[in-house]
Each structure stands twice: as C-alpha cells, then as structure tokens.
Design goal:
The structure holds three protein chains of three kinds.
Chain A lengths: L2 H23 L3 H21 L3 H24 L8
Helix pairs in contact in A: 1-2, 2-3
Chain B lengths: L1 H22 L9 H14 L4 H9 L1 H21 L1 H11 L11 H23 L8 H18 L7 H25 L23 H25 L6
Helix pairs in contact in B: 2-3, 3-4, 4-9, 6-7, 7-9, 8-9
Chain C lengths: L1 H22 L3 H22 L19 H4 L4 H31 L13
Helix pairs in contact in C: 1-2, 2-4
The chains are: A mainly alpha, B mainly alpha, C mainly alpha.
Chain lengths: ~80, ~240, ~120
C-alpha cells in the first residue's frame, strides 16, 4: 500500500467529516441534502480504496443517486414545512 | 439547554467507547477460517469467479431472500401510505393546476440518448455479475436510475403501476421457485447446481447464479422504480 | 493504516449523524442525519475486513485460483454491507413517506408539535 493511497484516503476521510458537519449544521435544507449525497459519493471512493469494488458500485448508485432524489421528491411536495 | 448538554454528554461517552475500540484495533494478517474456505473452495464449488456473488446467491442465499422480502415490504408500504395522495392527485391533475413546465431541449435530447445506454449498462452489470464486480443489486439500481431520468424529464407521464407490480411479483416468484427447484434437483435451497457449472470464467457458467441474480436484479429495479413513481405522483401536500 | 483511517471516519460519521438526529427539530433533517449514520456504520464494517497488501475477492488473471487464499481480503463483510446498503435505502424511503403523511395531517414538520401520543 503506497503513500499515495494513504494520502488519498486521509484526504477523503477529512472531506467526508467536513461534508457531514455541513449536512447537519446548515440552515437551508437543499444544501444539507446535497452534502449528504456528497458524503455517500466520497464514501464510495473510500470503499474502492479499501478493496471493495462491489460495495463501491452499490453505494455510488444507491447512496448518492437514489437517496438524494427521494429526498428532493419529498421536499418539493412539503412546501411550507421545511423552514421549521 | 439541558437537552443539548445531555446530548453532548451522551455523544462524548459514545465517542470514548469508539476511541477505545479504535485504539485497540489490530488489523488481522490472515484470513479467518470461513473466509479461507470460501477462498479455496468457493470458485470450484459454485463456478463463479466473483466470490461475493457466490456468497450472496448460494452460500448465504437465505439472507438475500430476507433482504428481498424487506425491500418488497418497504416498497409495498410506501405505495400503500401514499395511495391516498395519489388518488386525489389524479383528480386534481385533470384541472391542470399542478402542470409542470415542459422540459428543455437539452434534457429531452439527453434523455433520448442516455436512457437506452443506461438500460444497456444495467443489463450488462447484471449479466456479468458472477465474473466481474457487479450483480443484481447494482444492476437493479442502475435500471431504476434510467426510470428516474424519464421521470425527471417528463413528470406528467403515467407509468403503469400494474406493469411494475406484475414484474416485481413475477421476479420474486421465479426467484423462490428456482430456490425450491434446488431442493429437488440438487443439494438444497438456492443451490446453483441445477444448471451445469461450465468452465470457470465464461459468461454461461456458474450454474443458475446468472439466472437467479437476473431475477433478483429485475425485482430490485422494479421496487426502486415503484418507490420513485409513487413519490413522484403524489400531489403537493397542503401547507 | 488505511483501515484505521476509514474506521475513524466511520465512527465520526456515526457520532455526527446521532448528534444531528437528536438536536434537530425538523423531521427531514433528522432523516438526513440517519442516512449519515447509516453510511458511517457501513464504512466501519468494511474497514474491519481489510487486510493490508491484499486485493479484492474477485478471481481473474491477476489473482489466479491457486493462491487465492493468500491474495484476497475477507469477502464476508462486503456481502453483509451490500445487503445493509440496500435495506438502508428502503428504510429511508419509508421514513420519507411517513414524513409526507405527517405533514399532510398537521401542516408542519416540527417534531415538537406532534404531541398526540404524549401522556
């Protein structure tokens, strides 16, 4: 395992934690949902670095594709409740 | 104030437990006993080179059956819970009050070009599940992404709920049926030796694994599509 | 080393997700936080199966059948996490459907306004 993969994995972990903090703290809900999708995408690359290509493919397709869109479908139909 | 302080206290305690787990963790250097069995005998017994597919479909096939059941329950409950909004939505849409603006040319042309390619990619990932990374779940999610693209471009398009439900039920029945066939013709439930194993690494090999996984992929794709279609057809909730 | 980094990231995601689920009042924000915690758990599970210096459990020309047990990592956590990811998205869809119905019944998504079950 080379230094490059170690550095990349460290960078990905830091970016994941930063995006997660943004997802929990921001006032605007669409930004929070997009940050959660970004966390899933970075986790998918981290899975690839951990030698798990099947799991990476599944997480990329489901976690950062379908889940984000499920959130946005419901958000569009719940106007007026999102600012509580 | 008290609530936030107690939450932070709880998280600090949990963080201390996690930190102690992390510091004591020594990564293993050898495969465990079960993993050694799968590594040495898995490819020859099942005929698949992707060991994860071999585990998911044959060795731990009952867990896959349980997961497919849970997903079916989730899709059915989402359809049931949102059905009231959908019926009212259909009578409301006749008035045209919630008509969406037509999609731009970029989106419709992109949809026409991309949807067949995405469907082809999904079928490819499902068909090669036993050889390369991929399989039923990944391919099913990719198929559902194609349906999502059509939904985004054309929100007023009515998908036939009956077709999706029929596809889902038939795939589930065939999946369980092939498992039961394994009891009569081969070693046990979901044994893949009911079809010939073939040579390692070919497309038509690994017995019944491609067939079983194809139906699992169809079922998963149909379930995700039904969830998306149900959510997309509900009308806007009153505020 | 890479397993330690991934495990630390996973544990942090679990803690951040729990914090978000416990302190937010909007139901949609709580569901976003649950999704984060789900991703964290999956990351921890995969990092347990990693063995340094080895590669993915797929046999091909670079990992021949003969020395498979010396060249691949543990395939069992990956099969478990595959199942867990798919079930996680199913549960998220369920939670979102219920959030929609709650908003339809009361007009608000603030969880402190739903007091019907309290004593």
């Amino acid at each position: 395992m080379t230094n490059l993969t170690l550095a990349m994995s460290l960078l990905l972990a830091l970016a994941m934690v930063a995006a997660a903090i943004v997802a929990v703290q921001r006032k605007s809900l669409p930004v929070a949902i997009l940050a959660a999708g970004l966390v899933s995408l970075l986790a998918s690359v981290q899975f690839l670095l951990l030698a798990a290509p099947d799991v990476a493919m599944t997480e990329a397709a489901i976690g950062s594709g379908l889940t984000t869109f499920l959130f946005f479908f419901v958000l569009a139909r719940v106007r007026g409740g999102q600012d509580d | 104030m008290i609530k936030r302080a107690s939450v932070l206290l709880l998280l600090l305690g949990l963080g201390a437990v996690f930190a102690s787990l992390l510091l004591d963790y020594v990564p293993s250097t050898e495969l465990s006993l079960t993993a050694t069995y799968y590594a040495e005998r898995g490819a020859q017994e099942t005929g698949a080179t992707n060991l994860i597919t071999a585990i998911l479909v044959t060795y731990r096939g009952l867990d896959t059956l349980g997961e497919v059941t849970v997903l079916f329950l989730a899709a059915a409950i989402v359809g049931l819970v949102l059905s009231r909004g959908r019926q009212a939505g259909e009578t409301g849409d006749a008035g045209g009050a919630t008509a969406a603006p037509p999609a731009g040319e970029l989106l419709s042309t992109g949809k026409d070009l991309l949807v067949p390619l995405i469907l082809l990619l999904g079928v490819y990932v499902i068909a090669n599940g036993h050889l390369t990374p991929g399989g039923g779940f990944q391919g099913g999610a990719i198929l559902a992404s194609a349906i999502l693209l059509i939904l985004l471009t054309d929100p007023m398009r009515r998908f036939s709920h009956r077709l999706i439900a029929a596809l889902e039920s038939v795939s589930g029945l065939v999946f369980v049926g092939m498992g039961v066939l394994g009891i009569f013709l081969a070693g046990g439930f979901l044994d893949n030796r009911i079809l010939p194993l073939g040579t390692l690494g070919e497309l038509f090999s690994a017995g019944a694994i491609p067939v079983i996984y194809a139906f699992v992929g169809l079922k998963v794709g149909a379930e995700f599509s039904s969830m998306l279609v149900n959510l997309s057809e509900t009308r806007e909730s009153r505020s | 080393m890479i397993a330690h980094i991934a495990m630390a990231a996973g544990f942090s995601l679990i803690l951040i997700g729990l914090y978000g689920a416990l302190t937010n009042r909007n139901i949609l924000r709580m569901i976003v936080a649950f999704t984060l915690a789900n991703t964290g758990v999956n990351l921890v599970l995969i990092s347990v199966g990693y063995i340094s210096g080895r590669t993915a459990p797929i046999l091909d020309s670079s990992v021949p059948l003969a020395d498979a047990s010396a060249r691949i990592i543990d395939p069992i956590p990956q099969a478990l996490v595959l199942t867990a990811i798919v079930i996680g998205v199913g549960v998220t869809a369920l939670m979102l459907a219920y959030a929609y119905k709650l908003h339809e019944s009361k007009g608000t998504l603030d969880i402190t306004k739903f007091q019907d079950l309290k004593w």
